[in-house]
Amino acid sequence: MKPSDTNRNSKQNSMGEDLEASSSNSDMGVDDITTLRSDKQQITPRRRDSSNWSRKPPYQQHYSNSQKIETSQFSDSADSNFKSYHNKVRLPSPKELKHYLDQYSIGQDKAKKHFSVAIYNHCIRLRDRQDREEKELEALDFEFDNGISKSFREVIQEQDDQVLLEKSNVLLLGPTGSGKTLLAKVLAKALDVPFTISDCTSMTQAGYIGEDVETCIQRLAQASDFNVDRIESGIVVLDEFDKLSKKQSFDSRRDVSGEGVQQALLKLVEGTKVTINVPPGNSGSLGMNKNDTISIDTSNILFIFMGAFTGLERIIFEKLSKVDRPKVTLKDIFGREIQDPNKQIHSISEGGREIPIFDYTTHEDLISYGIIPELAGRISVIVSTSQLTISELQKVLTEPRNSILKRYKLLFSKWGSHLEFTEPALYEISRYCFEKGIGARGLTSVIDHILVEPNYDSPHSGTKYILINEEVVKTMNDKTTARVQPLYFSSYETVSFLDAIELEDPDRAHKLSRELFKFQFGADQKTPNETTAKEKRNKTRKVAASG
Fold this sequence. Notes:
The chain folds into 2 domains: 91-247 and 254-387, P-loop containing nucleotide triphosphate hydrolases (Rossmann fold); 390-540, Helicase, Ruva Protein, domain 3. The longest helix has 38 residues, at 109-146. Strand 7 and strand 8 form a beta hairpin. It is of the alpha/beta class. Helix 15 (390-398) crosses helix 17 and helix 20 runs antiparallel to helix 21 (506-521). The relative contact order is 0.08. The N and C termini lie far apart (133 Å). The protein contains 22 helices and 12 strands. One of its GO terms (biological process) is proteolysis involved in protein catabolic process. GO terms for molecular function: ATP binding; ATP hydrolysis activity.
């Protein structure tokens, strides 16, 4: 036998042993396979560096396996619980997200459901994207360690067989002050997703005075601390989107803030590369003296369009009026009530129910309003909010976790004053905002207007109690009569303060008397019931009358 044959056989035997070893350890990890090569040249698998590779969506950060999500109730630590889910722990379900929204927003149940589903699907899509990338890296590591390579045709075939989740951009439309912006803010806070709001009214076409459309990506980068992975998984809210509707065809002027901006936004929504300047000293900067730049892929950024779309209800109403229109006689024409063309239509009666008119919105209606067809086609989910009723506006004042009254009561307590509103006063405030059409957004301005005098007078004045009753609210904007001032009481006038509340709101007076007397008696003593508290107040009145 020739020496060359002997060497060839020895090489084949060694290769066979290696193949047997690799096949017997096929279920072992990449690290185990590497340790089998102690007598051969070590090949270090390519690993992702945790310090440099952080492609994790925001909702998958800051998680420890010991933390759990409270689904039955949301305590004060609900914000941190929502931010701390990751890895194999499930995301909060759309029901849990809606429950979280209910703590901050009143009404709009249908809009909350649709919006929760849209945000949930966005997070699922980001997680699927990360899982797919991790599997691809693991496959590359295994192929590199074992010397296996796939042909170009096999790689293309695998990519074609994959089912990819597409993003669903959202349009949230409804009257002013119906809570559109609040829904996006609360869910972005709950999921710890980078979030920014841009006003479309200030945007112009490139080359003209105003903000470029890419400014919204720059703001998102600032909110993400210039972390590329967080930016590419963020949410951009385009408020006042309806103001970008293109001009009528007979207008010959260049539409630099309408159709031109829509065409620029179309590129961002479809997905493009945007170059962002990173100031020195930020986490995304390379530490140079001059500004660095990063490239952002907008294909995975979720865009939420918002607007009141004033006038769209007329387009929808005319469309619905043409469907199965019956024959009209002269009697019908002269007997029909003349409608005000400027009056806004909020709902349509159907089957004995009042349905918000924006619930009938379609993509064709958006195109008729002035949205270009290409951009309207990129909007997958259309969610509408309805006008809040008087009772819902009254709940907005008191029920949310960060309600307006809770904030003002905390503010007045900082200098030792107790602020109180009666139920009739809250109703008058809600009725005023409803009739003026300013919605929940106008509640803050009305409360500010009422409390400007108490806020000026009460600090360091010895005023213990401040009462806003119905008469104070009714005369706040009455120019014909003198304005009624809020009622002030010292710490020695607790009974008089409770009596003034009882005139308009007995239930509130009884509840507040228990709280105040409990504070006076101390926590260790027995708390008097409603009858005992009322008797004490009556006894105090008799003593004051006899004196």
